[in-house]
Amino acid sequence: MQVNKIGAAMGAEITGIDLSKPMDVSDVQGVLDAFHENQVIAIRDQNLTPGQLIIFSRHLGPLEDQLNARYTLPDYPDVLVLSNDMKDGKPVGLIDGGDFWHSDSSHREKPSMATILHSKQNPKVGGDTQFGNMYLAYDTLPPEMKERIDSLKAVHAVSKLKNKRVKVSERRPDAKDHYEMQKAIPDQIWPMARTHPVTKKRALYVSERFTIGIEGLPENEADEILDFLFDHQVKPELVYTHKWKDGDLVIWDNRCVIHRGAGGYSYPDVRTMHRTVVAGDTPF
Question: Cβ(32)–Cβ(41) under 8 Å?
Answer without folding.
Answer: no
